[in-house]
């Protein structure tokens, strides 16, 4: 793995900054890029090291599920020779290392923010393990995936079964012998199940309600079609689901080996065992919901619906393209299997791939709804000088991705700059 360029380390005695950015991932570094351009003094505080998650929470065969041309961090677009390919883990890290070096952000690493509170006179106090700071404005750029979700039933499973969360998975060889139960079929679950399946491991997949999409359709990557259709420019305020889209599970697809569909039905014809949602463990057996057929059907309906939208776009614009098609299931479950005796299954490991919960408990500002999600409009909260950046669907589909972070960071930087100028005049 390439070494991370050493970011500048500001002195801990310089307590006040115009802006403090919490989080040193692609969002926090993008914010720093624009603040440096504007000449606004700031500090990025990172709990671990910059872009830590990309280095420590991805499996060995991980690759992007979006084409390389969508890697468009501010001032640092993809410059490789395979814009329609999918960068692998080491290539992603190389790309990020170049971005880190280019931005040269003022970063304080290995520093956990323990509390952020409003100051009576305006601005915010930021308490960390390295001391106390203050800022006129604060940007929360720590993402929305903090606490891995593992159900309490896991505590009752036999101690001899190794249990890990998706962020801990590395490769099939690192797991003990026996079948592997993968719980969840979102992007991580589906890709990890595929990784294990291709390695010849027996996989039991508890299928969730995640949708799927085609990798390629009518001669092009579906992402290319959707970009032309301006789907990625649609703000959350114009999406049919409005803010509800933020709760959606990502479509499963892969960029592996040049990109392809993930078809769980085909995996079933090759020996992968599919069940519905895992509900409980009791009396020595795993218990599943009888919803496997419905989940597979719903995923396929989404797949075909996206392709039908592309068909309409092609027809409306008179575009020459290969013929349209509709996915026809290659496998159907004979019946819903709702129990699996653990002693008969030979399961040696379980991988929990059911997502993460946000944890903003350190932010002592009443800015959250009943589900712990921050209230904001395009990252701007009702609280003066407090912003969020890098959350899924903060503004558009690309808000939490390499493709859309620049637009969001630039927008917030403009607002921060105007407020900063007001502070300067008042001083």
Automatic annotation (TrEMBL):
GO terms assigned for molecular function: flavin adenine dinucleotide binding; monooxygenase activity
Gene3D superfamilies (UniProt xref): FAD/NAD(P)-binding domain
Pfam families: Pyr_redox_3
Keywords of this entry: Oxidoreductase
SUPFAM superfamilies given in the database record: FAD/NAD(P)-binding domain
PANTHER family in alphabetical order: FLAVIN-BINDING MONOOXYGENASE-LIKE PROTEIN (AFU_ORTHOLOGUE AFUA_4G09220), FLAVIN-CONTAINING MONOOXYGENASE
Name the UniProt record assigns to this protein: MSMEG_0569 family flavin-dependent oxidoreductase
